[in-house]
Design goal:
The chain has about 280 residues and is mainly beta. It folds into 2 domains: about 1-60, no CATH class; about 75-265, Pseudouridine synthase (2-Layer Sandwich). Helix content is about 10%, strand content about 30%. The protein has helices at about 105-110, 135-145, 210-220; strands at about 15-20, 30, 45, 55-60, 75, 80-85, 115-120, 125-135, 150-170, 175, 180-185, 190-205, 245-255, 260-265. The protein is globular.
Length: about 280
């Protein structure tokens, strides 16, 4: 038992180490620690002097956010998983700028379950299949599937330029701190590409930030609607005019609990308004 307070409005509490005195700005609850004089989960009175550092939980004050006017669709659910079709423009989890307007927060609020956690991430601009865990007891088992690359993900993209290509692209990449773009060189990545005309099917065998977008740009055919490649046009969280033409179309894996083959796909089509 973690003794972590439950989420509020779908937003998880945060952990901090208090020094000298308990602040009065919000409520703090003692976290589990071997040398703490407080019981885990105990409410710490504001203004109380502390004899040493005390780990504690608190609920962050999250301001209201301008709504993202697109929502998810549930594709499947059981006692362990919720599988959804995420729309473009909605972050999977908090990106530091949006906390309330994320897939994770919406699911927690809509289902009334604080334990819902996405097992993988789609970029804010990418739509498609996302698998979420709702059961902490089985979460680790499913997380290992993704960590060990035992999940096959197939993406569909519409390219800005005609491309004929069939093969696997090996491309080293690295993310420069402070830059929105991923640069070449660094961590090896592997992506299978089938491109014919403006349509492309992409299967990543590694997981790197912007991997598919970088690969398409490298091949000379950036994805339509990409605001970062080849030119970084700047971040605008509320510009919904040109959806990135990239969709996580299908996700497949052997269920580690039942042994059955699972396959989830979206009916979302490329072209036009994808939301």
């Amino acid at each position: 038992m973690t003794h972590r307070p439950p989420a509020r409005e779908g937003i998880s509490p945060r952990k901090v180490v208090l020094q000298a005195v308990v602040p009065a700005d919000t409520e703090y609850f003692a976290a589990a620690a071997g040398d703490s004089p407080f019981s885990p989960g105990q409410l710490l009175p504001a203004g109380m002097a502390l004899s040493g550092p005390v780990p504690a939980w608190y609920h962050p004050d999250v301001p209201e956010e301008k709504p993202i006017p697109f929502d998810y669709t549930v594709l499947y659910e059981d006692r362990d998983l919720i599988v959804v079709d995420k729309p473009h423009f909605l972050p999977t989890t908090s990106n530091g700028r949006l906390v309330r307007e994320t897939l994770q927060t919406r699911l927690r609020v809509d289902f009334g379950e604080d334990d819902i956690v996405p097992l993988h991430r789609l970029d804010r601009l990418t739509a498609g299949v996302v698998v979420c865990s709702r059961n902490p007891r089985t979460r680790g088992t499913y997380q290992r599937l993704f960590a060990e690359r035992k999940v096959v993900k197939t993406y569909h993209a519409r390219l800005s330029t005609c491309l004929e290509y069939s093969g696997t692209v090996e491309l080293p990449m690295h993310k420069v701190k402070g830059s929105r773009q991923v640069s070449l060189g660094g961590t090896p990545t592997l992506t299978h590409v089938e491109a014919h005309g403006y349509a492309a099917s992409l299967i990543p065998h590694t997981g790197h930030t912007h991997q598919l977008r970088v690969v398409c740009n490298y091949l000379g055919a950036p994805i339509q609607g990409d605001d970062t490649y080849p030119i970084d046009r700047g971040l605008d969280l509320y510009d919904f005019s040109s959806p990135l033409q990239l969709v996580a179309h299908r996700l497949e894996f052997a269920d580690p609990l039942s042994g059955t083959r699972r396959e989830f796909s979206t009916s979302r089509q490329l072209g036009g308004n994808l939301n």
